Structure formats: structure tokens, C-alpha cells
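Researcher: Next entry in the queue.
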Amino acid sequence: MVAIAYTVAFEGVEGRLVEVQASVAPGLPAFAIVGLPDKAVSEAKERVKAAFNALSIALPSKRITVNLSPADLPKEGSHFDLPIALAILAALEIVPAENLENVVSLGELALNGRLVQVVGALPAAMTSSEDDRALICPMACGPEAAWVGSVPVFAAANLRQVIDHLSDRAPLSRASPGQACTRPTQADLRDVKGQERAKRALEIAAAGRHHLLMIGPPGAGKSMLASRLAGLMPPLTPAEALETSMIHSLAGLLKDGGIPRNAPYRDPHHTASMAALVGGGRGAKPGEISLAHNGVLFLDELPEFSRQVLETLRQPIETGEVVVARANAHIRYPCRFLLVAAANPCRCGYLADAARACARVPTCGADYLGKVSGPMMDRFDLRIEVPAVSFGELDQPATGETTAEVARRVSGARMRQSERFSNLAQDRKIRSNADAPPAMLEEIAAPDDEGRKLIHRAAEKLGLTARGYHRVLRTARSIADLEASPKVHSKHLAEAISYRLPFIPGI
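Model: Structure for this entry, 507 residues:
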């Protein structure tokens, strides 16, 4: 007899339905799994045997063959244990085969039959919903999968409960979604003394999702400023939270089934490999740029990153997605993030301080920042100098605005953008000014006559590229949104242009 159970294989954040076909036929005793299984899937047969023994289920002395269809799709992960076990149980007529037709299952089996938590429950629930099937998963995965309210999710603690549920002896109750997690802001913007221009740049960056580069000596507060940017970002919308959580689910970062509502903040070390940053490696897993989707990606010591790694960021910054190409698959991950980078002006860091700078000034600054290519530098909407803070400023009490005060203005600017793009844009991916295509800028960011003359002079004098010109318009639109101005005026353009000045501090 051949019985069929259903599960999913993951291609990026998308789940693909997989038929688990089990055949129990006469012949020499054997247990084979075919259909491009990886090592974890091939080892499932030993875990399934042990779990059956724990439940006093004896496998017959026959040839058992499990086929994972489509057979040309690579199968990876331990979540295939439960569907393999259910398909065999249906082939042995222990579980009614017809009860598996409208069920997708996933879960790892412990040797005693307990169901162990696996990654990807949320994307699996999305796939189940699209196919109009129920989902059976481990108890620990239930709150996560239940966020997809359009699909019945049944969470079981062990294989015995799943058998009783499918046999209608003891039906499982539907799982409830976990709590929406809102992380309290620990780092406050008021803690940063001085650096008023840098704080203003943070506000503009958060308002329109504009990429920001900070250059300054060691100890000026660049990392301190960057760590406070996530607190300025507005809470994720339900759609954004679901998008982000699906990626985090595949990476195993969701805790207790909770869906985070805060913008993610990722800060990989400068020794990170290309696979760690953009995705890839074993199983083509999502990288840091995808884990920062709808949030902030902070690259400290930007010139210390491998040039090859930095150059791979150029296309994802523009398109908002990355394709991890492999010989047998092309995996697509979303990665619409706000890039914040920090760098010293030179290797020693004291280019502008004549008393502490090295003997190679100013050549050392050009050589050091020259590690970042011109096209990559052109993708930063805001480029600011962060000077050293004097001891006099450090002795003064903190008097600046708090994170909550600035975040309210940012939230108001984002709401104006949301209303604008909901009326103008057919593409739902356009959510902020940074996403606006050049053709739309003529409608939403058209400057007045004075502003047009100003930006034309700036474009000629500063040698702005077409990309740089459009980024200035987007930034000016965000500055206008912070002031609730329906039009972009010359003062907004002047401030936006001031953040695009090409420079090496101290020269």
C-alpha cells in the first residue's frame, strides 16, 4: 500500500508543498528515503524507528520506501520526521490515510516520540493556508504558526497525541497565537551629548528610510548614535511584522511564538563573510541584510569590511531583495533595510587633529576611505562628519530631546508617506520616500523655482550623479514631511544638499 502525507520544503521565505509517499511492500527488510534528502532527512529513519519502538509500534519485516516528491527538489531539515512517520503509519493502516489528505505536518522526532521544535513554522503555516490545509506541528511551534489565522493549527507534544488526533480518538485543540512583542527602548537619544547635527541626520534617516554614513574620530559617538536609531523607527505594521517574522522564523530567532513589532537592528562584525552578510552557506540561509528587513543594518568600521562583501550590497540596496544563486536553486530573500555605517577618517583615526595624526596626512585618509568604492558611497543619502565632543560638553547635564519625542515626529512623517503612497503607488513595496521611483519624484518632490535653481547649481558644482540627484530629492521630501509641509521648498533642498557634500574630514 502507498500512503501520502504532506509537508513543506523552504525556498527562501516561501514554502513549497512536498508529498511524502510511503510504500510498504514485500521483500528483504529495508528502510530507504529517496527524493534528494540531505543528511538530516536521511537520518530521519533512525529517529522514526526509535519513536515507533517507544510507542510499541513494530515495523513489519518488509521493504519500506519513502519518496519525497517532487524528487528533484532538495529536501533539508529535521522537520520531515513527523510527515515521514505519519505516511508510514497510514501505509500500515494505523492512521486513516484519508485523514492526511488535508493536513500539512512538520516536526522533529525525539527517540522517545516527543516532538521537538523546528524552524520555519510561520512560512509553513502560510503555505498550508494557500493550499487550504490544516497544520500539525510541535507544541513549541504552535503559537508562532497560529499567527496565520486563516489556517487551523494543531500543536502536539508527542507522536502519540498526533496519532490520537488523526484517529479521532482525542482531537487536539487549536493553537493560539503568541504575544506581540514590543521591545522597550533601552538607549535614549538624550544620553548623547552634543552632536546636534548627527541627531538631526538620524531623525531624517528614520523618517524616510535614508541610508546614513557617519565619519569621525574614535570615541566621537558614532556607534552610540547608531544604536539609538532603531528606537526612532516607528513600530512595524502587521504586514511588515509578518514579513520580518517569516525570515526570523527560518533563522530560528522567534522566541515563544511571539511576533516582534519593533524594527529589527542588526550589527554584524566587520569580519563577517559574504554568506553571513547577504545570505548563502549551507541551505542558502538568509543573511544579515535579510534579517534586518524593515529595520536597521549597522556596519561599524565600514572600510574594514571586505571590499567584495561591500560591493555585493550595491544591488540589494537598490532593489530591496537579494537572490542567492546556487547550482540547483535561486533563493530570493527580501532585504529592504536602512543602512547606517560608521568609519574613522583614516586608519589612525585622528586625521583632523594635527597633534595626534600620523605622518601620512592627508594621504592616509584618502587611502583609507578609498576602500569604499564611489558607487557604494553614492548610495548613502546622508553623509555627515561626527566631530569629537569636547570635555566641556561632556560635563554638562543631558538636555537634548528624548527618543520618544523625536520618534513622534518620525511617526508623523511616516504616516504622511503612507497616505501619499497608498493613493499614488500601485506597488505595495513603496512605503517610504526612499522607495519612491524617479518618475514619481517629479510629482511628490518637485521643488519650487528657487529650489530648482539651487539644486541645479549644486548638481553642477558637486558633480551629482543621477542617483545622487534623486536621493537629494527624496531626502528633501522627508525633511518637508517632518515639518508637515505639502511642498518641497528651497530650505528643504538646501538642508538635503548639505548632507551630500563630498569630503574627507580635516582636508
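Model: Residues 2-166 form a domain with the Ribosomal Protein S5; domain 2 fold (CATH 3.30.230.10).
Researcher: Noted, moving on.
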